[in-house]
Amino acid sequence: MFSLRQVRAGTVFMVLCRTVLLVGISYVILVPVFLRISQSIMPVEDLYDQSVRWIPRSPTLSHFKMAWTHMKYLTALRNSVLLATVVSVVQVISCAMVGYGLARFHFPGNGLVFAMTIFTLVVPPKIIVVPTYLNFRYFNLLGLLKDNPINLIGTYWPFILLALTANGFRCGLYIFVMRQFFRGMPRELEEAAYIDGAGLISTFTRVMLPGAVPGLIVVFLFSFVWQWNDYQYITMLMPGKTFLTYMLDQLLPTMANYMGATDQITVSAGFADNHYLSLVNSAGMLLMIAPLLLLYAFTQRYFVESIERTGLIG
Amino acid sequence: MQTKRRFRWTFERRQKLGGFLFTMPFIVGFVLFFLVPFAQAVIFSFNELKLTSTTYELVPKGVSNYEYALFVHPSFVKQLTELMGDLLVEMPLILAFSFFAATLINQKFAGRGLIRVIFFLPVIYSAGVIQKLEVEDYSAIMFATSRRAASFLSSDSIKALFAAAHLPGALTRYVNAMIDNLPEVIRSSGVQILIFLAGLQSIPPEIYEAADVEGATPWEKFWLITFPMVSPLILTNLVYTIIDSFTDMNNNVLRLIEEVLWRGYGYGASMAMAMLYFGAVSLILIVAFALVSRRVFYRN
Predict the structure, then answer these.
(1) I want to staple B72 with a disulfide (CB 3.0 to 4.6 A). Which of B52, B68, B228, B258 is the partner?
(2) Pick the CATH number of A60-308 from 3.40.309.10, 1.10.3720.10, 3.20.20.60, 3.40.50.450
(3) pLDDT for B62-101, tens place per residue?
(4) CA distance A247 to chain B (A)
(5) Residue A32, number of CB atoms within 10 A of its CB
(6) Complex ipTM tops 0.90
């Protein structure tokens, strides 16, 4: 057998290995974030100064001011918060319903509906961009309103309709999570509710949903984050509207236009200006991601802890 | 007896009614907002789309869009096969890494909370538009390379080591590809780590206690308890990883499809490419699923 000293040496070695690995991996994850932070406060001169690595000689907030103005930050922030909140709240409810239906009811077509949810995940949104756009541009409910189709582009309606019907971005995944969660809940709960005379809907809303709160939180958080970062649906369904992702994507062209108009750009200095724009871009990225990081800081334990209890295990 | 029979009948009816009731929103939405656009995309792939001021027209083209995608377009087939090759390199790495990382952060140590926060950060950070801009931002790339000397994770030394070892070329290339992909792998493993972590947490501790009593070594405990118990999640993660990397709007094939859509050969050709791409993805999913699902161990 091993002596106590050998065991202790082994443990120390293990802890050392683990620490090195964890620090290394964290480093790889954090470097891009630190890079952006470093760039966002770095004056252009420091970018060319090889003696400056991470911490700029004379930190500046001017990039943040530029990005703030040109992204119309407050308006964009308000719109993004509104859209992400509405969409994720509605999606939580609809995906919970569908997940519950799939988890607890044996009806003809259960397997087919489940396959359909996976199918919606596998098709890249890009494939159906144009038909979806046309669908909402000339919205006619399968021909019911054939003579005067409604134009829903530029309104919140496409998002709300997609969320209500659990067909939004990555909803298949949320349905899957909720299905697994409900499958893990004891059947006795529902049986007791039925015997006490509760109907289908009141059993769901008053017995099953309160018990599924951890799963609902996970779905809400993921759905909020992915809706916040979404770019494809926003540019397709609300072209030109002030949302953070869209404004960030347009930041460089907007800035270039602005600088051209105010004579701050010359042809020979074009290359240098690209670098300056890139620094402003870093500030813009941080501005876009900051609210999410804030949300994450407050809710991170729900991400990790509640997913452990969602019964995702199948 | 009579009452019991009546109860069972209503139970079944309730099962059917409830199933349709709860999944109805999805079915309606699937038909309206998914199936209709998808079917249109399929139709478009056999046509040429001409937009007029009020509506659009279709000019039938048969399979010529598909012929264009497969035989005429200079880089579509190449990009598609390259993407699949990349996936073959990355897939085992992502699965192995996320499993490994999950076992690491499942252990008890000081600062575990902080490490978990960091490991999950990429889910928030490397998504959507940020990643799109990262790819396009060459200035930042220059910045990063000029400061690479400062990084202690220099991959070049590892590559040099493998090159010096005179291993078969294919192996060296594979290792090189792996090393180049490593940061990407780490950053795209957030959700997978979380799923594995959930699986590890759900293994009843009694099983390990029993194994300890029987005198099992850590090696045996890993292969005979941990691995089989978590194996269903390998399937889940495999499917998630395939879907995640193939629907990632920044991958080369989807970029190409978009390029063709807006300034190239036209919408029909773009949709034909998209359909071929979708077919390839489905095929990979089915093959991967069939290969792995037979080896998975289910508790019940």
Answers:
(1) B68
(2) 1.10.3720.10
(3) 788 888 888 888 888 898 998 888 888 888 889 999 998 8
(4) 10
(5) 20
(6) no
